[in-house]
Amino acid sequence: MQYDIIKRPLITEKTTIQKDSFNQVSFEVDRGANRVEIKRAVEKLFNVRVASVQTMQMKGKRKRRGWIVGKRKDWKKAIVTLMPGERIDFFEGV
């Protein structure tokens, strides 16, 4: 299922610049998903054509609250390059 693979889009200043300049969109994805599964999920969910997918394993940050030291979970990031002319708009009416 596509919703199990693509968890959420990553919307930051850097990803907004990547979207405008290089036609790339970033997502948090399932840690077990591979590039082919991510490509199929994005194409089916957003009805676009994907040129390439880059993935990376992100380590969770260490966080501290007083004496207690914890850690955020590890996660996987995918940077999806769309074909020329394709576009994904997350905030169309805003």
Structural descriptors:
single chain, 94 residues, alpha+beta, Alpha-Beta Plaits, four-stranded antiparallel sheet, two-stranded antiparallel ribbon, 3 helices, 37% strand
Outline the structure in words.
It is a single chain. With 94 residues, this protein is an alpha+beta fold. The chain has a single domain (2-82), classed as Alpha-Beta Plaits (2-Layer Sandwich), CATH 3.30.70. Helices cover 28% and strands 37% of the residues. It has 3 helices and 6 strands, in the order αβαβαββββ. The protein has helices at residues 2-5, 13-22, 35-46, and strands spanning 6-9, 24-29, 50-58, 62-65, 68-71, 75-82. A 4-stranded antiparallel sheet has the order 1-2-6-3. β4 and β5 form a beta hairpin. It is globular, with a radius of gyration of 15 Å. It starts with a helix and ends in a 12-residue tail after the last strand. The model has no long low-confidence stretch (mean pLDDT 94).
Number of domains: 1
CATH topology: Alpha-Beta Plaits
β-strand percent reads 35-45%
Structural class by SSE content? alpha+beta
- The helix/strand order is HEHEHEEEE
- Measured distance between first and last alpha carbons: 29 Å
Describe the structure concisely for a colleague.
The protein has 94 residues and is of the alpha+beta class. 28% of the residues lie in helices and 37% in strands.
Write the layout of secondary structure elements.
Elements: H1 2-5, E1 6-9, H2 13-22, E2 24-29, H3 35-46, E3 50-58, E4 62-65, E5 68-71, E6 75-82
Antiparallel strand pairs: 1-2, 2-6, 3-6, 4-5
